Every structure is written in C-alpha cells, then in structure tokens.
Amino acid sequence: MADDLTFQTPEALTRVRDEVFGATLDRIFDCHPHYRALFAERGIRRADIAGVADLPRLPVTGKSDYVSNPAGFTLDLPASVDAEERIVWDVMYTTGSTGDPTPFTSTSYDFLNVLALNRNMLRLRGVTADDTILNLFPLTRHPHGAFARAMNAAAAYGIPVVAAMPGSPSPRHPDLGNRMDEVCALAGRSGATILWGVPSYIRKMLGRAEEMGVRLPSVRLVFVTGEGFGEEARRDLVERLKRLGAPDPRVSVSYGATEMQGGMVECVPGAGYHNPAPLQFAFEAVDPETHEPVADGEEGLILLTHLDRRGTTMLRYALGDTARLTRERCPHCGALTERLVSVPVRRDGFVKIKGMLVNPQALVDGLAAEAGIAAFQAYVDKEDAADALSMDRLVIRMCPRGVADDALVRRVADKVKATVGVSPVVELVAADDAALGGGNWKAKPIIDLRRRPD
Questions:
Q1: Burial environment of residue 209 by CB neighbours within 10 A (0 to 12, 13 to 18, 19 or more)
Q2: What is the pLDDT at residue 229?
Q3: Integer Cα distance of 125 and 332 in angstroms
Q4: Which of 117, 261, 294, 420 has its CA 20 to 30 A from that of 196?
C-alpha cells in the first residue's frame, strides 16, 4: 500500500493505519521474541491492542532493551509466511552498548517500505524529476544507513545520484576514497542540484570550493542531518552557496534515526519535522519520567512505533530525544501526519559527533583494556574553537603508562575509530594534567565543549 500524506481526515488516516498495524501486531504477538516474553509477563493479550489508539497501554521500550538483545527485536517468522517477509535484504547498524554496534535488520518487505519512505522524504522537500543528488556521506566501516539510503532515495525517485565518497573507507583500498579537493572538483563537474550530508562537512567543503574557485551554480537544495543545526548555520550555508554562484539555495533539515532508515523532514524551513510515512510509523510524546502521554504541542520524550515492519520491529521505542509534537495538518504542505515543531534535544547520555551517535561508555570499555594508558579523558570540541559551525573534533587526552611512542598513539586512534566510528585526535599529557579531570573520567567519559549554533 503506497504511503500518502494528504488524508482527508484524521479518522481516515487512523482507519488505514489500524489495518496495516493489525497485520504487524499479529506477527509480533506470535513471532517477536522480546515482546512475546514481555507481554506474557505483563499479561497483555492481542485483544487488548485494537489499533494505534491503544499504544499507551504498552510499556515504553528503551535503547538498553534493544542494544542488549538486538536479535530479540527481529521477527522470527515461520516458513509458512511469504518469503518476502522473511528474506533479509540488508543490515544497518546503530550505536551499541559496548564497542560492537547494534544491527537493524530489514527484510525484502521492509526494503520496499524504505524506498517508499525515502521517496516521500524527497517529495516533502520539493525534489523534482530534474534534480541530481551529490551524496556527501562517507562510506563507514559499519553500514549506518546515511550513505546507502541517499543512493536508495535517488533510485526510488528516479533521479541521478553521484557518490562523492569523502574520506578513506579502508586502508585496503585507499583509491576508493576522495580527499576534500577531489570532492570539491567532483561537486563542480557533477552539476548536482542537491547536496546531501552532515552540515559541518558541507560547510567545510563549500569553504574549500571557494578557495579553489569551484562554482556551484546548479545547487538549489541542501539536505542536512546528524548534527545540531540552527538558523545561524542555515544562513551561513545559504550565503556560502550564493558566493559560489547558486542563485536561490534552500537548506532542508531532517531528524534522522537508524530505527526509521530515514528521517522526519521539513517541507519548508521552520515548518517542523514531518513523519514522511504515516502508514509505516507512529510517533508519540510522553513525560520522560512517568511515560504518560503529553498534550499536543507540549515537550515530551519522543517514541517511535513501527506500524508495518517484518525485520527489526519496535513498539513505543524511545529515540532518546525530547521535542514538541503536533498532529495538526501542516499549514504549508497540507500533510496530515505527526510533526516535531521544536528542535529535538538529546537526553539519553549519548553524544553526536560528526553525525555519529556515540555511546560514551563504549569508549571507556574500548580503551580500558589498553595496557599502555594510565588515564585518559575524551573531549568533543570544534576544529575552530571560535567558530561554532566548524566541524566536530573528538580529542583523546591520555597519560601513557611508561614511555609513549607513535605505535601507542596509532593503536589508541585505531581502537577509538573501531569502537565508536569516529577518528580522534590523540594528545599525550602528564599524569597531573588538568585535562584528565582529576581522575573523574569514569563519571563523565566524554566532555562536550561545543558551543551550539543559534
């Protein structure tokens, strides 16, 4: 069933949602390892959940529930079910509780929904058949979704996409990645009308393109995700693009999540982040402590429910952010779907660095076994401390145990990159250095020194 955004009434939307959700619930109650056990323990029966309106009867699922047992969240469907629902199409990863990232599995059934979701994201953002995407997401060690889903979005919409491949994905094939100058040159010759990536990287790329004399007159849209992004940052990107020849560029922000395999997006700046697939997802806002529903427009912890999935499937999953949610029809595009009308604020202890969601405890666990480290403290700051819009930087300040050498520094850098997916700057300090925080690093393993953009 194709996703729609312009249902005539909320009742019409609810009716179709409940039909789709009912089929998912049948499979969850029969075949979902985590929820079968939980519902049996709580005495929750299939008859207790008639549709989306009954979601508040179910307990909230936390990130810790998922990352401690990711296999328990994948439907274990019998062979009698259609193969499309059972065949694994791909596996993406999100931040784990330890150094290992957590798998998120999509079946062939789910992948068609992923295509529909990403197509709707482009529709909401005003993409046309004449557009071309320049994919500025890097190819990461573990598939996190951004790189692949940008390619999938173009396929679903029937438009060209060029992968810039910034960085170096693997020392085994150094020829596959592109340095900044190569990315800028590719942007110039591609004629792309859409730039899509992490905002701080796009900003840095535009700055270098200006130094190189590269012109980008075709760019009309910039899609950004993965970092805090305010109006000052939006104005900055627009002005940089205008200097590169773009006549009327517009920046569209999204609130992305691995658990969506896409994101909630703006139709126009300031309109809020729309649920682009209301037949695939339902969102709620609840009190962060009591988990009681809050009124439309009030700040609450944002919950995600999968209405139509067959691989990894979640009910009332806490995404880890608070925001104000409304179900009113969008006055700009007419979409009848949930919208976040405030910037989501992180509250689960995880930290976003260069668009990657990092578990601070995983960093501690990853370095704890390194015999060459006596103490360390991790910091997140900006490449340019005076510029709140510059790229994030992860710094590991460590006191070596004995004499340090280049091999230790390289080993620590490689360990951090493998553990949290972000390449750090490693600095050696003395045991009494204030940067070590008086030995209290276990209480706050990552100190965030970034000044957020307005």
A1: buried
A2: 78
A3: 12
A4: 420
Q: How far apart are CA 227 and CA 390, in angstroms?
A: 11
Closest CA to 101 of 445, 420, 414, 446: 420
Question: For 7, which DSSP code?
Answer: -
Q: Can you tell me the distance from the alpha carbon of 296 to that of 280, in angstroms, rounded to the nearest whole number?
A: 21
CB 3 within 8 A of CB 279: yes
Using one digit for the tens of pLDDT, what is the confidence trace for 67-114?
999 999 999 999 999 999 999 999 999 875 555 789 999 999 999 999
Per-residue pLDDT at 231: 84
Helical segments of 32-145, H only: 33-42, 63-68, 83-86, 108-124
Mark out the alpha helices in 145-179 (DSSP H runs).
146-157
Helix axis angle, 199-212 to 231-243, nearest 10°:
20
Q: Say how far apart CA 275 and CA 182 lie, in whole Å.
A: 35
Ramachandran category for residue 29: left, alpha or beta (phi over 0 → left; psi -120 to 50 → alpha): alpha
Q: What is the pTM of this model?
A: 0.82
Query: Would you give the DSSP letter of residue 268?
Result: S
Sheet containing 446-448: give its strands across. 425-428, 392-400, 373-382, 446-448
What is the maximal distance between C-alpha atoms in the chain? Answer: 71
- Label residues 21-50 b or e (16+ Cβ within 10 Å = b): beebbebbbebbebbeebbeeeebeeeebe
Burial of 4 (0-12, 13-18, 19+ CB in 10 A): middle
Residue 438: band (very low, low, confident or very high) from pLDDT cuts 50, 70, 90 = very low
Three-state secondary-structure class, residue 101: coil
Contacts for 105 with CB less than 8 Å, ≥ 6 apart? 74, 88, 90, 91, 311, 312
User: What confidence category does residue 172 fall into, taking pLDDT thresholds of 50, 70 and 90?
Assistant: confident
Q: What is the dihedral of CA 445, 446, 447, 451, to 10 degrees?
A: -170
- The CB density around residue 376, as the number of other CB atoms within 10 Å, is 25
Tell me whether residue 407 is exposed, middle or buried, using C-beta atoms within 10 angstroms of its C-beta: 0 to 12, 13 to 18, 19 or more. exposed
Note the pLDDT of residue 1: 46
- pLDDT-derived band at 442 (thresholds 50, 70, 90) equals very low
Average pLDDT over residues 316-326: 95
